[in-house]
Design a protein that fits this description.
95 residues; alpha+beta; three-stranded mixed sheet; 15% strand
């Protein structure tokens, strides 16, 4: 079966907002929420730089392998948080 709805998006969350403003931005491949004016602006710049690197490579975000994504994100100064692996419960009777 063809996965026609496969999509990738960068999500940026800023947590250092003290002025009460609600900042939200979206662009090609990214959605950003929160943060101080400085932090939000920095996240925007990093996402734009990331998209420029994608364009240079002639690739789409969805096409990147994990390592290539992490390398590009690092080059753009992004802090990447990877999901934790789920713990699988042990079957009953095992210690």
């Amino acid at each position: 079966m063809v996965d026609r709805y496969k999509k990738a998006t960068l999500l940026g969350v800023g947590l250092d907002n003290d002025d009460g403003d609600v900042r939200m931005s979206r662009g090609r491949n990214f959605r950003l929420v929160g943060g101080s004016q400085e932090t939000h602006g920095s996240m925007q710049e990093q996402c734009i730089k990331f998209n420029e690197k994608l364009d240079t490579k002639g690739k789409q975000l969805i096409d990147l392998e994990r390592k290539e994504f992490l390398d590009m994100a690092d080059e753009c100064g992004m802090n990447v948080v990877e999901p934790r692996k789920r713990r699988t419960p042990k079957p009953e009777g095992e210690a």
